[in-house]
């Protein structure tokens, strides 16, 4: 009942926007006890952001990663603090390593020829999980915890709106998904 919540906007498809947001937030000189990284795109056609990266990777993962890095000092000063990263069960259906077991950066921001929307989404969500786990290992001794969570299918969203096939699949699967 005493919480103060303020909304600020930023564009995760622009690293410059993320940086401006972080600077504006820091200028307020207020604590940050919880940061929820929830924005995502799904099933969008291949395109590059103004930063030259594939949009699903940048919006779903890299923008959040950069934001948390820029606000790292604020989170530490605000301890106890928490970062919640919304991921997806779809992270289980992909890999980001090459055949020798090394991280393959070309899979994270693929060329148009190598792009498949569902795989791009899955990979971005795997990156969310790995990031959250690493963040928790690094910052939890300092009073900042990080958790990656799958939001479930209880609340309908239009994340699948980019292609009618995804809309059909989501509609057909909905009666068989878990909910409260």
Detail the topology: elements first, then pairings.
Blueprint: H1 15-27, E1 34-37, H2 55-70, H3 72-77, E2 81-86, H4 105-108, H5 117-139, E3 144-149, H6 164-173
Parallel strand pairs: 1-2, 2-3
Helix pairs in contact: 1-2, 2-5
Could you walk me through the main structural features you see in this protein, from its secondary elements to its overall organization?
This protein has 180 residues and is mainly alpha-helical. It has one domain (15-149): NAD(P)-binding Rossmann-like Domain (Rossmann fold). Helix content is 40%, strand content 9%. It is built from six helices and three strands; from the N terminus they run H-E-H-H-E-H-H-E-H. It has helices spanning 15-27, 55-70, 72-77, 105-108, 117-139, 164-173; strands spanning 34-37, 81-86, 144-149. The chain has a three-stranded parallel β-sheet with strand order 1-2-3, covered by helices on one side. It is globular, with a radius of gyration of 17 Å. The two termini are 26 Å apart. The mean pLDDT is 86.
